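seq as requested:
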Amino acid sequence: MSAVETLRPASPSRPRRAWTFVRRLPLTGQIGILILLFWAVTLLTVQFWPLVDPLMMAGRRLQPPSADNWLGTDALGRDVLSRTLHGSTYTIPVALMVVVSAVVIGSALGAAAGYLGGWTDAV
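struct tokens:
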């Protein structure tokens, strides 16, 4: 008589694990991840989108949103959406640098206050 070989179930693949992590987050965490993904895709693709040049003046000043200009035009006739997206390529990295520096400085000060105690802990 031969022995019966039992196999253990296969472990889930990497993408499924990542999706499980996202699904376990609260709704606000899921919305935050969607916002981060949106801005990451925007930063990576805004240079290649066939949008209107953000500096090109179309001559149609202060137009409301339309099919040609999704957010309308400004006082000089420039497309507001393309200017916003191109501006985000500078704004988002600066914001990330500010957040990282605040975390580093805050962690260092918090560690020093916790280690030294006394009046530093009271501040």
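The mean pLDDT is 86.
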